[in-house]
């Protein structure tokens, strides 16, 4: 017996919740929903190693590099509802820097999965460390979770913040430089 397609499963959901599931407006919804779900969980199916390995360059120095306000969205693995926010990344190069556009690609690679923000933050930090062999990496993520704002406690302005500091970014002086630069 074959498994039902994602579109067929969405059709079943619509039939369970919608009093008029055969309305014209809903005719193509299961296929659109399947396409959307596959797009927002594409991090499971993409290979980024080769793309990133081609974008590593000699580091001109070992001064702190910061990329701020990288927008992201993900799906909460507990409720299958979105969480959206920004990520700030800093790293101290050790012989290699990474092409600027590759940093948001790393963020998207891990955000486009069923996630929790805490794991997402750590996965991004570990990936930056893996690809650059940096002396240190710091990642701070901030997000609004629809499972908090749309349902349950319904707290509209609640944001969650997580951080991961690896290597020399654990040093209070270096960490403070990173945090200070985020306010500029």
Would you kindly provide a written description of the structure presented here, covering whatever features stand out?
By secondary structure, the protein is α+β, with helices and mostly antiparallel strands. It has 2 domains: 6-40, no CATH class; 50-182, 2-Layer Sandwich (GTP Cyclohydrolase I, domain 2), CATH 3.30.1130.10. It is 38% helix and 27% strand. It has helices at 6-17, 29-40, 49-53, 102-111, 117-132, 146-149, 172-182; strands at 56-58, 65-76, 82-92, 96-98, 114-115, 136-145, 160-167. The strands form 2 sheets. The protein has a 5-stranded mixed β-sheet, with helices on both faces. Strand 2 and strand 3 (82-92) form a beta hairpin. Helix 1 crosses helix 2 and helix 4 (102-111) runs antiparallel to helix 5. The longest helix has 16 residues, at 117-132. The chain is elongated and about 65 Å long. 26% of the residues are buried.
Helix-strand blueprint:
Elements: H1 6-17, H2 29-40, H3 49-53, E1 56-58, E2 65-76, E3 82-92, E4 96-98, H4 102-111, E5 114-115, H5 117-132, E6 136-145, H6 146-149, E7 160-167, H7 172-182
Compressed to H and E, one letter per element, the order equals HHHEEEEHEHEHEH
Largest sheet: 5 strands, mixed
CATH architecture of the largest domain: 2-Layer Sandwich
The CATH superfamily of the largest domain appears as: GTP cyclohydrolase I, C-terminal domain/NADPH-dependent 7-cyano-7-deazaguanine reductase, N-terminal domain
CATH class of the largest domain: Alpha Beta
What is the CATH topology classification name of the largest domain? Answer: GTP Cyclohydrolase I, domain 2
- The shape is elongated
User: Please, how many domains?
Assistant: 2
Q: Structural class, judged by helices and strands?
A: alpha+beta
Task: State the helical fraction.
Answer: 25-40%
**What average pLDDT do the residues reach?**
96
Low-confidence stretches: none
Helical segment count: 7
The CA-CA distance between the termini, in Å, is 59 Å
């Amino acid at each position: 017996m074959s498994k039902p397609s994602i579109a067929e499963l969405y059709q079943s959901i619509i039939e369970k919740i919608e009093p008029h599931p055969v309305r014209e407006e809903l005719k193509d919804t299961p296929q659109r929903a399947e396409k959307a779900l596959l797009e927002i969980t594409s991090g499971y199916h993409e290979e980024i190693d080769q793309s990133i390995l081609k974008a590593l360059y000699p580091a001109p120095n070992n001064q702190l590099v910061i990329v701020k306000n990288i927008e992201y969205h993900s799906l909460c693995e507990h409720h299958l509802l979105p969480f959206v926010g920004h990520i700030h990344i800093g790293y101290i190069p050790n012989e290699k820097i990474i092409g600027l556009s590759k940093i948001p690609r790393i963020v998207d690679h891990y955000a486009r999965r069923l996630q929790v923000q805490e794991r997402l933050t750590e996965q991004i930090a570990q990936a930056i460390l893996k690809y650059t062999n940096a002396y240190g990496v710091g990642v701070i993520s901030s997000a609004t979770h629809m499972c908090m704002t749309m349902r349950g406690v319904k707290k509209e302005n609640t944001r969650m913040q997580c951080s991961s500091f690896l290597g020399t970014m654990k040093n209070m002086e270096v960490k403070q430089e990173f945090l200070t630069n985020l306010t500029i």
